[in-house]
UniProtKB/TrEMBL annotation:
Residues 143-167 are annotated as: Disordered. It comes from the Bacteria. This is Uncharacterized protein. Residues 144-155 have a biased composition (Basic and acidic residues).
Length: 223
């Protein structure tokens, strides 16, 4: 059978037992040791119970921190400025509070991050040491997706291969040609070759412009 005893009552018992122990009562001395042990264990369990939610929260946040950091920043920035949230700075304290961790732990997790569009911003007064920088807030800038860069690289590789083939194609004065995507500013313009110079041509475009263009920028049209 468990009897719930208040801490105040236990402390009163402790005081009584201490007074008896001081008089040489050996039984009181033994009981005093048991009471002190109980009080220490009770305080420890309360401390652990209070600390565990914070520790659990910090453990969860540590996993995939970079993604959670962006999501939290975006949410807070969106609340303050709406859809135009890119490049809007949010203070470390606000981010840490929203993520359920201490600002000290937040700084530790931010320090090793290597995110291209993440910028740490130094404050006017109090700053935190983040690696080799001093900062009080951070922001994210828009960036092109890596997949797009990859696709662009693949496209450029294909274009280069095609260009090597096209350079072998010879043009003559009078040929009707169309400018391809290798020269974006003239892309899809149609014109007539009026001068051939080695592996390039001077083309008189139908819109009235003239341009010197390498052969690989031109597609010959059927006469």
């Amino acid at each position: 059978m468990t009897i719930r005893t208040s801490t105040d009552l236990l402390r009163q018992i402790q005081d009584y037992l201490r007074s008896q122990a001081d008089k040489g009562d050996r039984q009181a001395q033994q009981l005093l040791i048991q009471v002190l042990t109980f009080l220490l264990d009770d305080n420890s369990s309360h401390t652990q119970a209070e600390a565990s939610p914070r520790a659990e929260s910090e453990t969860k946040v540590s996993l995939d921190f970079d993604r959670k950091l962006f999501d939290t920043w975006q949410e807070l920035a969106n609340e303050q400025v709406g859809d135009n949230f890119w490049s809007y700075p949010i203070a470390f304290e606000d981010l840490a509070e929203a993520m359920g961790i201490t600002v000290e732990r937040f700084v530790q997790l931010v320090a090793p991050l290597q995110i291209g569009n993440l910028q740490l911003i130094q404050g006017r007064s109090h700053n935190y040491t983040v690696g080799e920088q001093m900062a009080a807030s951070l922001t994210f800038h828009p960036k092109q997706p890596k997949e797009a860069k990859s696709d662009r690289g693949a496209a450029e590789a294909k274009t280069t291969a095609k260009s090597q083939t096209k350079e072998k194609v010879s043009f003559r004065v009078g040929d009707r040609v169309q400018v391809n995507a290798n020269r974006p500013q003239y892309a899809n313009q149609v014109g007539t070759v009026d001068q051939v110079i080695s592996v390039s041509c001077r083309v008189k475009l139908d819109n009235g412009w003239s341009a010197f263009l390498p052969n690989h920028c031109l597609d010959k049209l059927p006469n």
